[in-house]
Structures are given as structure tokens and as C-alpha cells.
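Hi C.,

You asked whether I'd gotten around to modeling the 283-residue construct. I have! Everything is below, sequence then structure, no commentary in between.
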Amino acid sequence: MAHKRPRILSAFLSHLPDEDRVKLQQEQPLPTNHNPQLSLEEFMEKNIQDLGSRLNYVKEYWKALQASCRQSLIIKDKKVEEELRELEDIRLELEIETYTVKRQKRLILDDMKDGYPSTWKIEDAYIAAIRTKTMAATINKRRFRQTEFKKVVADYLQAQRQTEGLKYMWCHILGDWLEARLVKTAHIVPKSLDPDAIGYVFGAFSMTLDDERNGITLHHSIEEAFDRGTIVIVPVAEGQIKRWKCVLMDQTKQKLMVMPGVKWQVGPRQGLFSSLYPLLYQP
């Protein structure tokens, strides 16, 4: 199971010498708000700096706590030992996450050298990358336990029910219950991305291909359009990524029917249902 982003511990700060406590207060990482106007490179660099601040704080806290124990300023009892062990675990997790983000930054910047503008915002880059990866994954489909994945996702999202003997499943874009035979399960982040990249989108270290958090249930026409790259599902840029929206990429289809009574275009600007049915991701 993927780890959540490590927290910063401070259980014993009040017991440290004044000098160490003041130093740690100066090192305390400030909360960061995601700015959607940052370019992709600026966003990733800011994330790396944030991770570096958190990592440095954990290291300094660990050293100060160890020093206080050696000087008998703090009794090294079971609780202190647990705090030290957890600090070591957090340090390791932060180091792994920092390595992963730096590697992703290098790969993305290499791709941008091939023609993507450096002024792209985060959402622009995500849409382009995910659209390409989704179409590639559809063309090069590998054997996958789709039936099992559909069941796991439906259970996780509570997206299935049975009424009077008929099975129904929820379409997260239409926002309605449909006959189960009309609903398919799609990967929000394409199968062709590696586990680190998938996990990064969801704020985890790594996620397996069949992780239920990466699934969504859709009407089969919408799922097929998603596979073709006609639409993309992208994270909404506000704080930590937990909300999603659907964007219509092929504007020539605005007035065409998705299914009887439903057109591709709903909102005048954003296209496919994005203003009416934002996709909610609950970790």
C-alpha cells in the first residue's frame, strides 16, 4: 500500500534546550499553497525545495533529540525511542520522495526540450502528457484483469447497486445510475505510466497498476472517448490534488450526442460537464 506524505513530528520540542528549540523553529517548514499560475518547471522546483525543507527539519530534530538524550536532558524512554524511530522512517520516506520528484523533473524537462513551451502551466502539461499516454495505452493494450479491476473500483467508489433484480453502476461524469452493462471502468492515469508517476499524481510514493484509487466508472461512450483522447480527466489545481474535471479536447464534437439526450458540450467555455459534474476523489 502506498504511503501518505510524511508528517512533521514535534512531540518533544518543548523538552529541548532553548538554543535547539529556536533553531528548529527557524527550520520549521511553512505551509505551501499550490499556485496554478506557476510554470511546470517552477512548480516542480518549488516542490523539491519544500521537500528539502521538511527533510532538513527532520534531520535537525533527530540530532537535537539524540544530543539531549546523551546529555541526560531528556530520559530516553520508550516514547523517545519511538519518536526517534519514526523520525528515521520519515527521513527515509522524504529522501525517496525527493529522489522521485527530481527524477520526474529531469524527465519532464527533457521532454519539454523536444518542443513543449517552458511557459506551460501545470494543467497544460498534464493534459498533453496524459492524452498521449492514454492513446498509447489503448493502442498497445496488454493483458489486464479488467473484470477484477472493475469490481474493486466499483466497491471502492460505492458505484454499484441492485434494484428489483437489475444491476446499476454510477457514471461519474453523467452523475447518474445506469444499467451496469452500459458502464465501463477506466484508469484515470493511464496504464502506460510507471507506478512512481501514478503515485505522484495522487500524492503517494508509488501505486500499482490496479490500485482502486486510479479507477473511475464511466458510460461506455465516454470511456471510449477517453481512450481515443477526445476527452481527458485532469486534476483541478487547488491545494492537494483531490478534485478532478473532464475536458473536451476535440471541440468539433461539442454539438454531437454522447447518448440520447446528452451532448458533449454543457458549459459555454469548459466543455464536457466540467462545470456541472466535477469529479471528486476522496482518499
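If it helps when you're writing up: Helices lie at 18-27, 40-70, 78-112, 122-139, 146-157, 195-201, 220-228.

Thanks,
B.
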